[in-house]
Each structure stands twice: as C-alpha cells, then as structure tokens.
Amino acid sequence: MKKTHVFGVLYLGLSMVGFAQEKQADSTKVQQLDEVVISDSRFELKRENSGKTVIKISQQEIERNQGRTLTDVINTKSGIEVNGSRSVAGQNISSFVRGGNNRQVLVLVDGVQINDPSLVNNEFDLRLMDLNTIASIEIVKGAASTLYGNAAATAVINITTKKASRDEISGSFLTVVGTNQTQDDLNYNGASFTNNVSINGTLNKFTYLASFGNRFVDGLSAAKAENAENDPLSRYNTNLKLGYEFSNNFEITAYASLDKFKTDIDGFPPPTFAFADTDDAYISQQKRVGISPKYIYRNGSLQVNAAYTKINRETISAFGATNEADSYVVDAFNKYNFNDEFYTIVGLNYGDYNSVFAQDESFTNTDPYLNVVYVSDFGLNLNAGGRLNNHSEYGSHFVYSLNPSYTISVGEGYTKVFGSYATSFIAPNLSQLFGFFGANPDLEPEENVTVEGGLEYNTKNGFRINGVYFNRNEENTIIYTTAYENATTDATVHGFEIEAQIDVIKNLSIAANYTFTEVKDGERLRIPKHKANASLGYNICKNTFASLNYQFVGSRTDTNFSTFTNEDLKAFSLVDLYFSHKLIKNKLKLFVDVTNVFNEDYFEILGYTTRGRNVSLGLNLNL
Fold first, then answer.
1. Which residues form the signal peptide (predicted)?
2. Which of 18, 252, 401, 405 could form an S-S bond across to 422 if both were Cys, CB 3.0 to 4.6 Å?
C-alpha cells in the first residue's frame, strides 16, 4: 500500500493557523465559578464541601486532547499509572491507582458498573472506549465501595457520555491522521487513522444521538525484535442514545452500543515458551443496552440505571481460547434533600454475572446501601454511609465509610482539611475461581481498609493546591504464583499526592502533580515509586490554544518471562506538544499533536515496544 506522508499536510495546517489568527479580545477579570463534583456523594456539591479526592476532567479538557485516547488523558492524573498506554496501540492496559491493581478499580459508564467477568481481574477493557464519545470524567480516589460496591477499592472512574444537542439536528465529524513509529525508525509515514461522526438533536420532547467511530493503527510490532512483523489494531464503535421527557418530572433515556477491536499480538510459542514475535491475534467485542428512567419530586428524585452487557473475546495463538461473558446490573436509588444541609441517598444494587469456562459459572450481588451528606453553615462537612454486600458465594459483608472535612473561608477562597476512613470488599472473580489458568475455587474475598488525610487551599481566582496522604491495608490479597491464592500476610500501600493549578497570567495556566507510592515489605510490578506530571496551557489568541506537557516516571520492577527473574526498568521523561486553532468559531478546528518530542528511548513493559516521536494532524467539524 502506498504510504501517506504527513509532513506536507502538517505544514499546510500550521500555515493556515498562522494566517487565521485573530486579535485577542479584551476581557475583564472575573471570579472563577465554583467547581462542582458529583461522584463522591452522587449529589452536586461544591468542591469546598467535598471531603474526597476527586479529579474532574471537563468537556473542555477532553476537547483539548482530541486525537488522543482515553488512557492517554487519565494517565496524566495524580496517583494513576496506566501501564501499556505508551506502547503499541493494542497493548494490554493495566490501571494502577495508588499502588493497586485492575481488580481494585471500578468503571462506571453513565452511572452503570461495567466489567468483564471472564477477565482475570474482572475489569473493563478501556481499549474499547472512544474518547470522542465522552462528555466528562470524574475519578474518585480511595475506597468507594459504600456507594459503588464490589471492586471500588482504589478508584472509581465515572464516565459520562455525550448528550444530544438542543437543536433539532446537529452533527460533528472528526478525523485524525498520524504516524506510528519507534525511536529508531522515524519514517514519518501515515500509519494511524481515527474517524468519528455523530448526528444528534432534540425534536420537541424527544432526544436522539447516533455515532460511529473507527480507528486503525499499523506500523509497530508488540515485541521489540529485529525484522519484526507489524501488529496492527482495528477498532470500531457504534452508539445510539434515545430519550423522551414525558413531563417536567419524568424522563427516560435508553441506549445501545457495539464496540469491537482486533489487534495482532506477540506471545510465548512452544517449544521454548520465550517471548517472541508471533502471528497471534486478539479479538474483543462488547454489546451493551440500557435504560434509565428518572422521576423528580419535591426535594428529591427516584432513578433506576439498568444495563445488560454481552462480551465475546477470542485469543488466536498456540494457547488460543474463546471467552463469553454477560452481566445484568440494576441500580435503583432515591435521593432526598431534607434542606440545604442534609442530603441522603438510599439504594439497592443488583448484579448478575455469568461466564463460560469448562461449564457456565455465575454469581450475584444484592447490595442495599445508604449514604448521608451534611453540609453545615459553619464549615463542617460530613459524608458517611454503609453498604451490605450480599454475595451468592461468600455471604454478607458490611462496608462503610466516614469522610469528614472542615472548610475555613479565606478571602474569596477557602482552606479545607479533610480525612477519610473507608472499607472495601473484593470478591474473587469467576476467572480466578473457575478459569482455565490457575483457578482456585477455595479463594477468600479480599478486604481493604483505606485511611486518608489532606489539606487544600483554593483562592477561587486562579490558584489551587492540595496534598493528601493515603494508607491502604489489604487482607487476603489475591496473588498468582503457580495458581491463584490468598496472601498469608497483609499488604500495606501508602504514599502521598500533591496537586497544584495556577493561572500565572491572563490566558496562561500551569497544572502539576506528584505522586509517591510505596509498598511496605514487598514490591509490585510496573508501579513507579515516583511519578510527576506538568502541563502548561496558553491561549495564544481567542481561537488558538497551545499546551506543553511533561511526564516523569520513576524506576520500576518488571519480570523477564524468559528467565522468570525480576529486572529494574530505568526512569524516563516524556514531553508532548499540542496545538489547536478554530478556523470558524464553534464550527471548524484544526489541531496538531506531537508526542515524545525528544524521542526518548525507554521500556514501559520489559521486552515490548514503546512509541518514539509521533506526529498527528486532525480536523473537527461541527454542524
């Protein structure tokens, strides 16, 4: 196939930006609006009244990362290491939050828990998600099992997808073309292609949204080897969302989605079983349908989020396997505001999870829960709740959380002291109990206790800084040796995070974070002890934005699966550059993304390829 060279297109795009710049409009300084967070309590609370560590990724931030992936965006946040996001496009993704593992992170999409019961860690595969379909993301760090149930031990990633426009008909089109190259092969050929189209609108009381996206990436081998063959990724996403407002008090939203990707992979072929460049492949498909009726009454609301998910996976290799799984999840809850100080939520969460191994295996969860929020007029805030996990295999386990905070007004801003004590419960998943590799039906549930304490100062005029210490004790941690088993000793992970956001001058902002993570009396693979991110964003003029991003990842330990010995991976630093310009306000935007500007050569995962300097050029058209 004839290769597409992107440098000429890049030069043309930059030239158009240069000629299209407009004089920056004058504006007066205004106080920033209060940031509102939801996921830590399910109520809209001002940030100053929330006692949890919540990261909010807004629609604006997502738009300023167009052309990138969901994992690229999440990986810049404090306390989070998304391992595999810097490697080939089809690389397995591991979400390490505060030294935890995939099984301790819960993903919500539009309020519904989603996971794959057939996967080893029961997690949702983030590779299936298209960033262009997402409106906003909230990440609650720390134990959140009281509100969200099993597996919410280190973080909850709450994804809200885009809603329909209020216009009768509206549309958008996004296309991105870029390179996909290693540090030692900078050919600058077009090898990465992303497209997304959406049609949506509102007809009287009826809303609709339909979107389709596809992504194709070629050019790299998963295994770092001489004369290796390419391992391409191909993904497509289809989404349909319909809604109807029956009255001012009652509305229903229904949705359906189909997400599928195929990627070539490298494996461990016989007879040596050493990692090598092979012709293996991996296919994953997810179908989801759901409905969400909501009734609003005086001082409260009643809502049900219900969804069915069907997942099919196939691994084509010397050890090939086919996996099928489905899940039914229903979350019914009532929210009530007694007054401006007391808020309550009472709910019942039901989940039915099934997967096919040697035979059909399943379990259910039926969890009633209660959460209370108190916001005083003298600075004291309290978020407390409890949940009774009723597991069909492991009986009942009670989890609870206590999350006080105290806010002191300082000028137009505030200083906040906050703390948290929370427990969580993680049941062994179906793959660990009945799967094909190392299954152990005698596993016990993992139980965690997380303690946090922190301080935040916010002027509300362009300066915010906070720091938090965390300590998590894990009992019956599920580990893998020659099979899955419970650790005989408790594990403790502790550390601290620091975040700062500064509007230095008009139109120039800096955001930075640092995370220290340490596992006491042991180590965990691929998790850095030190990690830092910094971002400088500048509105060059009214229609032009540029950002410079820096990331430092400290040394880690990984396993060499050829020798089954552990090796240290060196620290590395990455610099990315992003540039966007609106040619027609709210209609047409061009953007350029340069990643790994200095072409850093490093290992993210031992023996696997990482990406060198890459360039992409995109166009976003709104109609």
1. 1-20
2. 401
- Which pLDDT tens digit goes with each residue over 138-197? 999 999 999 999 889 999 999 999 999 999 999 999 999 999 999 999 999 999 999 999
Q: Residue 434 in 3-state DSSP?
A: helix
pLDDT in tens, 458-517: 999 999 999 999 999 999 999 988 899 999 999 999 999 999 999 999 899 999 999 999
- Token reading at 169: 């008909």
CA distance 261 to 252: 30
| Each residue's pLDDT tens digit, 362-404 | 999 999 999 999 999 999 999 999 999 999 999 999 999 999 9
Dihedral sign computed on CA atoms, order 388, 389, 392, 394: negative
What does the buried/exposed string (b/e) look like for 165-180 if buried means 16 or more CB atoms within 10 Å of the residue's CB? beeeebbbebebbbbb
pTM over 0.70: yes
DSSP letters spanning 345-399: EEEEEEEEEEEESSSEEEEEEEEEEEEEEEE-SSSEEEEEEEEEEEETTTEEEEE
d(CA 506, CA 569): 41
Ordered structural domains, the chain, with CATH: 4-622 (2.40.170.20)
SS (H, E, C) 544-607: EEEEEEEEEECCEEEEECCCCEEEEECCEEEEEEEEEEEEECCCEEEEEEEECCCCCCCCCCCC
Helix segments in 377-526, DSSP class H? 430-434
Q: How many Å apart are CA 375 and CA 392, to the nearest integer? A: 37
Which among 108, 161, 35, 25 is positioned nearest to 458, based on CA atoms? Answer: 35
Beta strands 446-458 and 484-486, pairing class: unpaired
